[in-house]
Fold these 2 entries.
Entry 1:
Amino acid sequence: MRIKTLTIKAFGKFQDETIELQPGLNLIYGRNEAGKTTVQTFIQGMFFGFYKPYRKKKTYSEEYEKYMPWNQFDYSGSLVYEQDGREIRLERNFLRAKDSLFIYDNTTGKIINDQFKYDGVIRQQLPLGNLGMTAVIYNNTINMRQIAHDNESGTQDEVRDSYIEMQNSSGIEINFKGIVRRLEEKKNNIGRSGQSKSRIGAAIRERDELLQLLKESEAAYAKVAENQEKITRNQKKMKRIEAENDYLSQESVVKRKKELLQSYEKINKLEKENNRLSKIIREDEVYEGYNYKTLEGLKAISNQSDRLSDQMDYIEKEMTDASEHLKTIRQKEASKRSSLAGHTLENIAEDYETYKKEQDEVAAVDKKSNIIINIISALVTLLGMGLVGLANMGMMGTSQGIENLSLTVGVTLAILGVVGLSFGISATLKKQKILKEKQLIPIQEQILAKYQLKDGPSFDSYYKKVVRNQKELEQMQNEGELIIVQHSRHQAGYEVLFEQRRGIMRDLERKLAEYEVKDIAEYAERCEKGQQLEELKIRFNGNLRLLENLLETVNGGKTDDGQSVWQKASPKSAELLSLGKEIARLEGENSALTDGIGLPVEIQETIKSLDAQIESFDTEIKACNAALEVLEAIQKDYHLESAPELNKNIGDILETITQNYKGVKIDEAMKLKVVDPKGGDFKDAEQLSAGTMDQVHFAFRYGIGELITHEMPFILDEPFVRYDKQRKTQALKLLSELSSKRQVILFTCDDDEENLLKTLNAPYHKITL
């Protein structure tokens, strides 16, 4: 037999994945978390499903939940294998609500489920049942999972379990492990006589309580018998008195007989109605147990899920709006930046500063020159005017020549001052005119040309606009960063709500599956039918009580008002009343004596039944102990028969791998021992190093697989983690030899296996996940 194709539709992390396997050695390579163990578990699930063994009803194993895809709407796949020249296709749906397996002839497409063994517990065919292969044997022999590196004792337990299962696969139609567990469970279920809560202890306690109750019942019923004799005597006396009375008139008798006939008609009508109600109740008993309290709980879960969904929708809308807003901001930023024509604020500011600096320097020099000229001109004018004034006032002396000279010099200075002042003012006006006419130095012209501007004022406006744009860009960037932070918070909140809603939906689906309904509406419909069922039961019981009253009336010869049909009022009514009261008192006393106490004969029968039950429990426990002893003896016998061959196979393989240990023994306690090559003593497997224990484990699987079946593929997941290079080489050599006879599937995350196979010139087919 060889596996050809794996089609993983939805399983674990995989979705719509196809893996083609070849005959011989298949090396499936993948890094950690690539899904190697998932593929190995998928193969197991396709052959066996995920059910716990040795159960009386279908029970799912832990792998079912572990490898369920996140979407939970699909959990399926298919596997094609070839056996005896025939291609067989398995299609399995793992979902609990859609759990199914279809087996096809892959050549004709015909469904061939009926050609395979059927398991009544899981209600499915067993694809490998004709080979005698169960999930327990598969996982303890030819399917070698990852070894727990921190638990050598757990590995040793697995070795022991594998050996026990091998006994069953060697042609013996007994599962020792399952039978022993069931026998022990049966013994534990019965318990011991000293355990008050065990079945046998409860039976003994109940028997002892009934023995005490029997004494009380016998005393009570002895008193009841005494009272009954008194009641009988009083009743006879009342009959004698009543016999003395005349019968009522014929008319009255006929009238009351009609009333009895009416009661009969009511009884007949009620019986017909109750027959009809009984039929309906039997048909609707399936709706019993569905109640509105559970319905409200389911609705609360659904409403919680809806609220979370609404919150998720709101957050999703907020995230969309934020994304659109952020997009708009980015567009505005791009527009603002494009308006700068590739220039930056720093470059523009630097050019603007240079422009202003040149302009200020020219203005400062021109201003300084004009001021000096104007000051000097003003001073000369004042000096001239002063000299003229002094000459006119005769303060320059008595000499006429000096006054004339002073006057001439003063006038001349005044004229020069006025001329200089006029020149300064004229020069100032001329420079202002030049500035107005935008006469610029070359560097300023270059700056304006760089930004395609006409003059300084336009450059001022342009610079102010750039500064304003920069502030707006910074504001947009801050707003964008705030939106990104809000978007991240929304995303985190959305993921939390998603996980909460997912958990709630899982809980809801689990509860609906428990009640075997598809949705809440179907549960509500069943609640309504359950309520109708309760109403029918109430009506049915009410009719029963009414029937009992009517029958009592009819059987007692009384009408609805309680009057006797056949007798009239007795003249000795006081005596009859007294006798009636005494009879009622005695009957009340009898009722009180027997209230809550069964008949002695019934208690005695119950005690006999309990004695028989206790004796049966004792017999069952003795039978279980005897069966366990027989199974232990049979197991020892099979150990003596099969151990030599198994010891030799495992020892040869272990020697090939380790080049050191060459003797292996499996004792009666199902413990594996290795012969110490130095002293020849036996050494428990737990005493070996972790790496050597792995190699013993591999040798055991290899050897036991050869004994059980030569058909099934040998599947290994990271078996050589703790091997050194030499032992890994020997193990790969064995697998290469084995692959010539049967398919081998080796999962690994290391390149060593491929390199060693190349060194050995061993053929292999590599698959990368």
Entry 2:
Amino acid sequence: MRILHLSDLHRAGATETLKAIWNGPQAALRKLPEAEQRFDLIVVSGDLAGAARPAEYDELHEFAVTSLLPLLREPDARARVVFVPGNHDVDWSAELGRPLQISDLLQRPGGSEQLAALLRRYRDDPARSGVRQVISKYGHIEWIALDEARQADRFAGVQRFLDSFYGDTLREPGRRFDLAAAQEGLDWSAHVFPADRVAVYGFNSCFLNDRHWTGAAISRESIANAAAHAAEFADGFLRVAVWHHGIHTDGYRPDYLNQADLGALIVAGFQVGFHGHMHKAGAQQLGWLTDRFVLVGTGSLGANQNHRPDAIGKQFSVVQIHPHQVHVQVFERTGDVPVYTRRPPRTLPLGNQGEREQHEIAAGEHTRKIHVDRHGIITVSVRISELRTPVAIPVAELSPPVCEARHESPVGSPGFEIRQSTGQDGVIRFTLYPPDHRSTDLVWRYQASNAVPLTQAEVPRYNLAGRRDLDGARTSVVVRSHTVRFPCRHLTLSYSFDDPVVAMDSVEKWALRCVTHNGDTHWERVDSEERRCELVKRSPTEISLAIEAPIVGHRYAIAYRPSLPGHALDYTGNRIAARLLDRCIADRELGAMLSYQLAETIAAAISAVFGGSPTGISWMGLLWDDAQGRLLPAFGNFASREWVCSYPCGTGVAGHAFRFNRPAAWCRGTEHSRDALVYQRSPAYQHWKPEHDWIVCVPLVGDDHKNPLGVVQFEGGGKQHGLGDRLREFANAALAQAATKGSSWEVFQQTLSSTVNTGFWHACALADCLVDFRDDIHRLMTQLELGGQSSEASLTDGSMIRL
């Protein structure tokens, strides 16, 4: 809700008009972007006139109609202008009662006791004692006995104005002020807006005020009645209170409200308060309160310099209230220059004491531009303006199956350091360490691989532990989210892609909060927050989401379905992979023999084609386990400790080759290139480190559409000869983009892929555990032209075995 806050309209002199006073603020508002020149609510927190004269209220009525109402988004909604009385709206010319003759009182029977009781009441509570002490111009002390029937005359002028301005627009659940009531507790107003889930209540902080007692107080009866009204008509709404007098901790300042007055409002459920009177702006979340309350005061719009302390200029404020945040922008005119300038804005959290401690961190505009290239590598450009934090804060988190990430140093923020770490849960975290409490405009960039599924086939492989559809299948929706770790005024998430991978009719905006039910933690969507989000679908390659004042701890996301089908292995291919894994890994008796036979058959094929055995090379055959969502080792020539290695889809060089169904390579010495991001580093808790300098991975074709069912990974280190040297050269050529169409390296890549797949499927055709799939395997080999249907294979030693 966007609010214009004005206060203390009383003019500097008899010749100055509200129209003339308004020229400066009006010019300042017109300089704002057009969308910011309209308001949901206008609050005028007291001192509507200078001396409560009828002519002043007539002028105010015209000013409100011609100048204030047009500023509303709904110009005819008078209930969206909230007026409350101030001390200048108390008519000091009103008769209060009769002079109290002390001499006559003492002459009556019991008069001395009555006088003593009167003085005692005055000493204990002068405002409610029923008498007023007056010091005459000659220095004499005089007393006035108040007449309860005349007290309403003090507010006759302002009550007439309120009745005239609102008319019948404040119908139930709204309510007009009743300042003339003899009964205490009726001097409050109600402005309820169900669509906004906001209720604004006006209070009279001058209900005991007169020309002889200028103290401030809000009737506890009025607060209680307003709270009862809110419970009936505004249950669950944000409650906003508006009154005139400022707050002061000194109990000997009767012209200010004290902590007890404010505490009564907080107990009644109010979370935001607007006031004036102090002639200078101030916004704070009071540290001595544990409940939610933000106090917003603004300076005088019309008071002369004698009334404005500390040479404070004329002021008005623009306030934005969000579910967990209040943003205050003060406009001030200094000296004789009729130009209003902006003060630095303030952002205050709506939260309890613990939340306030978290909100010592603050930021202005928070923008994240995420670009996803066709290789699945994301580049995230982060820009956070006016960032202020006294402690280290997380600025990015990447969860598995993200493979690797790297970042650059912040630009233009000397002393600010970002450190990268990886936890045992596999989450990559970037943490900002500030040198001190100073503000900075953070500009920073990082990259990561395997962060975003690009096709329909990849989505369930990324969401193994995520949401499921009603039929129990893993969801096909991609959810790209950002968890808000610190408050900011505005958050923008922009996503762009090299290729049109987004089905535009499926794009949605999501807002989620973390909830715990029966000990289980999960994320649920929040409709009210989603309504605040703005989703922009520019093209199939560019979408964005924006929200003002996002809630700390919530996730804001763009959800969509990919438009491309991707590489989804058919049922038969999945069953073959599952059968091989079950036999190679789980069967203690025959598993080792099957792994050996698969490895030897592929090695024999490579030896026959390339004229050299791969026995001196470490290589591994990995098959896709759809249940676990990982590539698992099944056969090959590798150290026994590497049986624990596994790769989620897209993770590591092997996972990258499987994901994109094309050969992939890596070489040591390319760590600073983008391609190095596909390499999976060993976790910190792994006691051994791999001893390779290069890796080449070739997909294993698994069905008629050439979708992969696994990968064969070759790796080596140091100086090698024969095939090992050739593979190392190919890895370097691939990273140098030399394996282009028509090149010798493309021929080598195709030959290697064909040879590996021929050896694999020949072994499968002869495996007893796959006898049920033999016809399918022979058909696939014929379709893919992988050689004849032999029942024997030559091993590397030249002997023949039957599989």
